Amino acid sequence: MSSFRTMEWTNGNLHLLDQTKLPCIEEIVICKTMDDVCESIKKMVVRGAPAIGCAAAFGYVLGVRSLVENFNFENMSPDSCSSLVSKGREKIYQSLLKTRPTAVNLEWALKQMQRLDYKEHESMGSYVNAIESKAIYLLQEDINTNLKIGEIGADLLGQCRSVLTHCNAGGLATGGYGTALGVIRSIKSRFGDISVFATETRPLLQGARLTAWELTKDDIQVTLITDSMCGALMQTREIDAVIVGADRITANGDVINKIGTYTVSVLAKENSIPFYVAAPWSTVDLGTHSGGDVEIEQRNVNEVRGFGDSVWVQENLSIFNPAFDVTPVEYVSAIITERGVIRGSVDLQEKGLDYEF
Amino acid sequence: MSSFRTMEWTNGNLHLLDQTKLPCIEEIVICKTMDDVCESIKKMVVRGAPAIGCAAAFGYVLGVRSLVENFNFENMSPDSCSSLVSKGREKIYQSLLKTRPTAVNLEWALKQMQRLDYKEHESMGSYVNAIESKAIYLLQEDINTNLKIGEIGADLLGQCRSVLTHCNAGGLATGGYGTALGVIRSIKSRFGDISVFATETRPLLQGARLTAWELTKDDIQVTLITDSMCGALMQTREIDAVIVGADRITANGDVINKIGTYTVSVLAKENSIPFYVAAPWSTVDLGTHSGGDVEIEQRNVNEVRGFGDSVWVQENLSIFNPAFDVTPVEYVSAIITERGVIRGSVDLQEKGLDYEF
Questions:
Q1: Which of B24, B215, B263 to mutate to test the interface with A (most CBs of A within 10 A)?
Q2: Are residues A105 and A283 in contact, defined by beta-carbon separation less than 8 angstroms?
Q3: Is the CA virtual torsion A175, A181, A183, A186 positive or negative?
Q4: Percent with pLDDT over 90 in chain A
Q5: B109 vs B282: CA distance, rounded Å
Q6: How many domains is chain B partitioned into structurally?
Q7: Which of A30, A108, B160, B187 could potentially form a cystine with B240 if both were Cys, beta carbons 3.0 to 4.6 Å apart?
Q8: Which residue of B has its CA nearest to A234?
Q9: Residues A43 and A172 both lie in one domain
Q10: Residue B351 pLDDT > 70, yes or no?
């Protein structure tokens, strides 16, 4: 396991390690309401597709709990009660869903929560208990999934001694352990030392701040580079593999991940370095054919104008700030999921047959 | 011409627009001694291969002037005088040369200065006047060279309406006007509007701070992106060409330029976008066979740890910080010089026959 907790459900509140403040300050944000959770996801106090999914599940619990507390369902007719809960649940679902548009795990986790039917419970209290248990289960499941991805990834990449990763697909991006960094943790524990090159990942510097922090915390050798150094590094140093996470994987195998991932994949191909994606099956979106069909979140341009309180560009400058890009399936050597290793787009559809979204 | 002065020789001192403070503060650093110039080059108050060459020429003038002022050559024997000046000149040459190891224009400009023989002058005063005139001539020549590169580049790229550039190969990187940005200025003045995408160019943010500033200053449409967005931009937007400068071009046509240039060239090739380099002939190093033979400057890792007073990574993190990378000739569509357009490595050697280093 990773030596820190990305999130904890404590006394009915969601405790989040504030990732906007790492690595300089280790601070906990306590979310007592669904709005707190929405705000934390939007502000990227919690980020990373699987972590967002888990946090949203707890946000759903907080939303429903508040709904139940605000009405005296005992005195309502079954129809009024049903209508009120339905509407409330839908509003909660939509509020959480729209916090980040790209990560499919968010939708996946919320659908898991919606599937619990309040009508099957004898009281609202028992329904709230059930969804709370479900959210706790999803968090634990996410960690288990990461451990499984790590195991399968280490089988595949065990020989790698030097890998490059982009952004943070680590314990901080998940319930714990991590996807891409989970594979690295598993390689280290099974095969010994591994050296990681981490891109800083502008604009929000998840690589410099989060990946470097969590690998150092777990005593894994990490060297930081700027995003622009990937090419030179692959040209001049021995890099055995690239491994990254994913925010969404479409039916044809295209990978939507942090802006810059496509760039790294092209460089890897040009330098004959295998390019791996590690992600839970919940990242797979079989309902979307290819990367071109995915809405890419455009974030506030202030993120590019500087960092934190530092601003280094002039006023009124035209700026782009897409949060993600699309790595077409032909650049991906393999996708490592808890269900096994996927190569190419055909497998994805096949493996999807027994998959219930 | 560009609407600002990168450097000016005024009252026997070198005035430099402080590029470490742009775009927020427009401040002039006045160099009164050779050491001031060395310091300004090292600290990147002035940067960009051609600008460094011009600044070093003025540094040479300041060094020799101080040498002459400190000794009473009038009362020395011709032999003592000759020995003292020889040693002094060599020390000045070496001090300036070692300020930045990669840019070949620096060496080129200093050699131009060394070629002026003090023995051919009737007095030290007349020698100092001659080298001062030479430095002024080199600065004017650099601007003329840029104008010629711009003209030739606009012939070649006149149809381009949307180009991507990396780092700053502009008026700020040269005596004025610029190489890559000079071509853009020429296209704009001859063919009308052109839209430029500028990478921010971590770690020192020359794209965000300098390219964006000078293009805005000259009313050229510019959009800022992070370095990691190059791939996504080429994938999703119409980019007609990439154009960058060079710090050194080796005999086989390899291009040494700001870290990240190789990455952009690979992405351009993958997306069938032509990749142009604009540089004065003084950037060509026929004495070095290929990029692999060039020493790449490794800069202080603190540059990657943050920017300015902002630091966002933990202490004691392992970091790489190469200032340049090598773009192999096969990724370069053409090199635009004041002598004409060069394609491939054969031309380079041929055009070098009449070239005196």
A1: B263
A2: yes
A3: negative
A4: 83
A5: 8
A6: 2
A7: B160
A8: B263
A9: no
A10: no
Report the CATH number that the domain containing residue B222 is assigned in CATH.
Answer: 3.40.50.10470
Domain that holds residue B333: 149-351
Residue with tokens 């090419």: A231
**Is residue B267 within 8 angstroms of chain A, CB to CB?**
yes
Whether the CB-CB separation of B220 and B196 falls below 8 Å is answered with yes
Residue B302 counted as domain residue: yes
Same domain, A233 and A132: no
Where is pLDDT greater, at B131 or B237?
B131
Q: Which residue, among A228, A293, A326, would best test binding to B if mutated, counting the most B CBs under 10 Å from its CB? A: A228
B247 is catalytic: yes
Last residue of a domain, one of B120, B141, B162: B141
Catalytic position from the list A36, A218, A247, A254: A247
* Domain final residue pick, B115, B141, B167: B141
- Statement to judge: residues B254 and B193 lie in one domain: yes
A201-234 pLDDT tens trace: 999 999 999 999 999 999 999 999 999 999 999 9
Using DSSP's 3-state secondary structure scheme, residue A73 falls into helix
pLDDT tens-digit map of B87-101: 999 999 999 999 997
The pTM score is: 0.91
**CA–CA distance from A168 to each of A16, A229, B117 (Å)?**
16, 17, 60
Q: What is the CATH number of the domain that holds A81?
A: 1.20.120.420
Average pLDDT over residues B236-245: 95
Provide the pLDDT for residue A351.
Answer: 65
pLDDT of residue B353: 46
B187 against A356, higher pLDDT: B187
- Unique residue bearing structure tokens 């023989």: B117
Put simply, the answer to whether B232 touches A309 (Cβ < 8 Å) is no
| A262 inside 8 A of chain B by CB | yes
Interface of A with B in 6-45 (CB under 8 A): 23-24
**Residue A136 sits in the same domain as residue A39:** yes
Model pLDDT, residue A260: 98
Contacts of B216 in chain A (CB under 8 A): 314, 317
Find the CB nearest A313 among B212, B266, B320.
B212
CB A351 within 8 A of CB A339: yes
Chain A residues touching B325 at Cβ < 8 A: 229, 231-232, 235
Residue A154 sits in the same domain as residue A229: yes
Residue A282 resides in a domain = yes
Task: State pLDDT tens for residues A266-323.
Answer: 999 999 999 999 999 989 998 999 999 999 999 999 999 999 889 999 999 999 999 9
Q: Which residue in B197, B228, B259 is closest to A260 by CB distance?
A: B228
Q: Are A267 and B263 in contact (CB under 8 A)?
A: yes
A2 belongs to a structural domain: no
Q: Residues B271, B346: one domain? A: yes
In whole numbers, what is the pLDDT of chain B averaged over residues?
Answer: 93
Taking CB atoms and an 8 Å cutoff, what residues of chain A touch B202? 200, 202, 226-228
Residues listed for chain B: 357
DSSP secondary structure letters along B61-85: HHHHHHHHHHS-GGGS-HHHHHHHH
Residues A179 and A240 grouped into a single domain: yes
| Chain A residues within an 8 Å CB radius of B273 | none
Which residue in A73, A57, A200, A199 sits closest to A134, CA to CA? A57
Model confidence at A91: pLDDT above 90: yes
- Asked if residue B357 is part of any domain, the answer here is no
